């Protein structure tokens, strides 16, 4: 993108500025990377209390079958994702991804079954392309609408109590439940999910009501605003992929270790096996394995190993075997953490590989993900 | 004598040796530091060469050698506890001592008022 082009803003932009946020360009938006306390304290606050994130830059889309039936919308979307959408219970959400004909990942997304329609959240940088993808492939049978709404994430162990003061029923929601509700008399769509590894909620709010809702949430002593910097370190500790870093069109879901998101119905032998772009390759890899895998990487020393660092088989850095896709310091684990791709032969936890950092080859140990214990309320 | 570079290093000069660190402004801009890599004692650097590395949660940054010289001492307290750079950047958070090749080069650096003007 042309850096001189005007950046877009979310409905919470003025609030971020008034709260003293340091703003940076992200996916074409002027977004808060951190507030006065800084990334470290914001990260730890989210893990111990409740952090408020503006994720309004992400795309919110509804998909309604022209027939009016949920089943028709579900089957249409199943032609683009390897996820069981028909079997998704009402008011439940699932993680999934759009794939291409070669089995690469076009974007990852959250898919919710509302009464007779699907509510989908996609990444900011991909939303126009995703919208077109949906229009082009299922536009004949479905009405696809890109919504103009804000999205606020409240993440952390205190999030449920903060929101229960506004809507008591929220406490009965389980991880990945989605409900319509009213918060301060504003009609919202709430899911018990997020991208921090913590219990928490994402709240879809009409754009013109977003600032009011956010301000009221921030009045609570347990809630602090949190920037994209801490969002990145939180999701990295939780072992969650960032599209464009850890997964993209050059990685398949199986290479990305995302096979858990492909339900039985869509796998070989399932009732609706295949039928999505790249199914031959993806199901082939699911059955026969891949040559490389995304793994957790724990540097042995104190030096953070960043994204794009090359990985080698030996301490002398002779044989390049892969690359770090995300890496940094994990404030909760109090050490550097990273993720990256290694050949399957090197993917077993406990295997030592070497990352090139400023001309040195630092030992990093393949580790199980996540680096922290998630606190989802299943 | 206290001098500053436009790259946000400070130098406290005693004779021909300068104690070098990063300014409070730089420490604030970098955010909470979680890792510091210092040069080896005895290493020589030219002005502007990468002499040390600091890393925050988010990103790595280089600390440049402010003038030509040789490292005579390093502050291992900040490699053990990088947060010292944030809490006391102009004191306990110093980086290294540099024996200057040419003391006269100091004239080309900023004084305190010049640096304050730079950071506005």
Automatic annotation (TrEMBL), chain A:
Keyword terms: Aminotransferase, Methyltransferase, Transferase
GCVT N-terminal domain sequence ranges: 12-264
Segments forming domain Aminomethyltransferase C-terminal: 292-373
A GO MF term: transaminase activity
UniProt record, GO biological process: glycine catabolic process; methylation
Enzyme class: transferase
Enzyme Commission designation: 2.1.2.10
Classification via PANTHER family: AMINOMETHYLTRANSFERASE (PTHR43757), AMINOMETHYLTRANSFERASE, MITOCHONDRIAL (PTHR43757:SF2)
Official protein name in the record: aminomethyltransferase
Lineage: Bacteria, Pseudomonadati, Pseudomonadota, Alphaproteobacteria, Hyphomicrobiales
TrEMBL record, chain B:
Cofactor-binding details, from the entry: Binds 1 lipoyl cofactor covalently.
Keywords: Lipoyl
GO-annotated cellular components: cytoplasm; glycine cleavage complex
Domain of life: Bacteria
Cofactors required: (R)-lipoate
Keyword Cell division set for record: no
Modification N6-lipoyllysine, positions: 58
Pfam families: GCV_H (PF01597)
PANTHER family per UniProt: GLYCINE CLEAVAGE SYSTEM H PROTEIN, GLYCINE CLEAVAGE SYSTEM H PROTEIN-RELATED
The protein's assembly and partners: The glycine cleavage system is composed of four proteins: P, T, L and H.
UniProt-listed HAMAP family: GcvH
Family of this protein: Belongs to the GcvH family.
Protein name: Glycine cleavage system H protein
């Amino acid at each position: 993108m042309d850096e001189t082009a005007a950046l877009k803003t979310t409905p919470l932009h003025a609030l971020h500025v008034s709260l003293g946020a340091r703003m940076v360009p992200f996916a074409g938006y002027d977004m808060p990377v951190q507030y006065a306390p800084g990334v470290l304290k914001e990260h730890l606050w989210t893990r111990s209390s409740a952090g408020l994130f503006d994720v309004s830059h992400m795309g919110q889309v509804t998909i309604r079958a022209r027939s009016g039936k949920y089943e028709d919308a579900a089957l249409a979307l199943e032609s683009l994702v390897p996820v069981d959408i028909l079997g998704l219970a009402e008011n439940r959400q699932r993680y999934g991804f759009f794939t291409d004909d070669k089995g690469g990942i076009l974007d990852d997304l959250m898919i919710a079954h509302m009464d007779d329609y699907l509510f989908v959240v996609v990444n900011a940088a991909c939303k126009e392309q995703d919208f077109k993808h949906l229009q082009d492939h299922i536009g004949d049978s479905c009405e696809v609408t890109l919504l103009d709404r804000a999205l606020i994430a409240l993440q952390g162990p205190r999030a449920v109590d903060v929101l229960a003061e506004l809507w008591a029923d929220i406490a009965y929601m389980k991880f990945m439940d989605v409900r319509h509700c009213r918060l301060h008399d504003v009609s919202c769509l709430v899911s018990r999910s997020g991208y921090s590894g913590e219990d928490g909620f994402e709240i879809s709010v009409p754009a013109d009501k977003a600032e009011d809702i956010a301000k009221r949430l921030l009045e609570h002593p347990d809630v602090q605003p949190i920037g994209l910097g801490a969002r990145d370190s939180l999701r990295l500790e939780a072992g969650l992929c960032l599209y464009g870093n850890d997964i993209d069109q050059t990685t398949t879901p199986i290479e990305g270790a995302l096979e858990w998101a492909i339900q039985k119905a869509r796998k070989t032998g399932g009732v609706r096996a295949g039928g999505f772009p790249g199914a031959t390759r993806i199901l082939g890899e699911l059955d026969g394995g891949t040559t490389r895998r995304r793994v957790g990487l724990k540097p042995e020393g104190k030096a953070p190993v960043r994204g794009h660092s090359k990985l080698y088989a030996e301490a002398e850095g002779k044989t390049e075997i892969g690359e770090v896709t995300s890496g940094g310091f994990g404030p909760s684990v109090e050490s550097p953490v990273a993720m990256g791709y290694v050949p399957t032969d090197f993917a077993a936890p406990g295997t030592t590989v070497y990352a090139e950092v400023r001309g040195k080859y630092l030992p990093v140990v393949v580790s199980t993900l996540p680096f922290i214990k998630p606190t989802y309320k299943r | 004598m206290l001098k500053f570079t436009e790259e946000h290093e400070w130098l406290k000069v005693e004779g021909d040796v300068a104690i070098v660190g990063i300014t409070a402004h730089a420490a604030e801009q970098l955010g909470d530091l979680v890792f510091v890599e210092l040069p080896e004692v005895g290493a020589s650097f030219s002005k502007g060469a990468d002499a040390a590395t600091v890393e925050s949660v988010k990103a790595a940054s280089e600390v440049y050698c402010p003038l030509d010289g040789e490292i005579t001492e390093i502050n291992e307290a900040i490699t053990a506890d990088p947060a010292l750079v944030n809490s006391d950047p102009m004191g306990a958070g110093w980086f290294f001592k540099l024996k200057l090749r040419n003391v006269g080069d100091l004239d080309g650096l900023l004084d305190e008022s010049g640096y304050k003007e730079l950071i506005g």
